[in-house]
Design brief:
With 254 residues, the protein is of the alpha/beta class. 38% of the residues lie in helices and 19% in strands. It contains 9 helices and 9 strands. The strands form 2 sheets. A 7-stranded mixed beta sheet has the order 3-2-1-4-5-7-8. Helix 7 packs across helix 9. The longest helix is centred in the C-terminal third of the chain and has 24 residues. The chain is globular, with a radius of gyration of 18 Å. The relative contact order is 0.16.
């Protein structure tokens, strides 16, 4: 079964996790290409400088220094460069000249004959022609137990809200936000994990869930889990006050 991965050139977590994913996939599931967006941690609407200022104002100096140091360190580590991982596995990198929903982009993706599209940390909204491009569907990984914690930065919000557990969900993409029917869910007990530890843990667990979802799709053995709108909660980007509350309840970023 041919798949195309759609993701971004994230310098923190994705390279090692996608390497893990590719090593876990059975031989009869082939990744024929990877559509790679420029990295955009909090969306594409603002410039990098504006996002850096916004991050500093909300999360503080130590947060920016910690992640800035990690960013620089990863720039010189071959194992944290997604392009190197894809090259190691012989997977073509697709860099689209236009937005992903543009007909020209859809034609480029369709040339790789995907039966399934796999979105991992994609940073563009998917519209119906893209969602329906692959005959077996388009799936996405969300690091929370849907329908709760739809939206941005679920690892922050579950800690801030002092949840006992969280998890990962792999679901079929529809035109809503994290609202499609769920294929696989896996739970995680949070205990005393920091946000960084929780992200690292759920990203790898998410790769296991993607593998399981793809195997079920290939075998036509998917048992869908409801993702009811009336039970959903949605969270966007935190405010400075949210970060203060996060720290007040004893949570740590790293």
């Amino acid at each position: 079964m041919k798949t195309v991965i759609i993701t971004q050139d994230d310098p923190f977590y994705l390279a090692k996790n996608i390497d893990y994913l590719l090593n876990q996939l059975p031989d009869d599931i082939e990744v024929s290409a990877c559509v790679l967006f420029d990295v955009s941690p909090f969306g594409k609407k603002e410039s990098f400088i504006n996002k850096l200022k916004k991050t500093w104002k909300i999360f503080g100096t130590s947060f920016v220094i910690n992640y800035g140091f990690s960013f620089v360190k990863n720039k010189f580590n071959a194992d944290t460069k997604l392009r190197n991982i894809l090259a190691k596995h012989g997977i073509p990198i697709v860099e689209l000249e236009k937005r992903i929903n543009h007909p020209d982009s859809l034609e480029v993706i369709e040339n790789y004959q995907p039966e399934v599209l796999v979105s991992i940390a994609g940073n563009q909204i998917f519209k119906k022609p893209l969602i329906e491009l692959a005959p077996k569907g388009c799936i996405n990984l969300h690091t929370a137990l849907l329908p709760k914690y739809r939206g941005l930065m679920p690892s922050f919000w579950v800690l801030k809200n002092n949840e006992e557990k969280t998890g990962v969900s792999v679901f079929y993409v529809d035109e809503g936000i994290d609202s499609g029917p769920i294929i696989i869910q896996k739970e995680v007990l949070i205990d005393d994990m920091t946000q960084k530890e929780l992200i690292k843990h759920t990203k790898q667990l998410g790769m296991d869930a993607i593998v399981e979802a793809l195997v079920n799709i290939k075998n036509n053995s998917v048992n869908l889990i409801p993702n009811p709108q009336e039970e959903m909660t949605y969270y966007s980007f935190p405010t400075k006050q949210d970060v203060k509350e996060f720290k007040r309840v004893g949570k740590k970023f790293y």
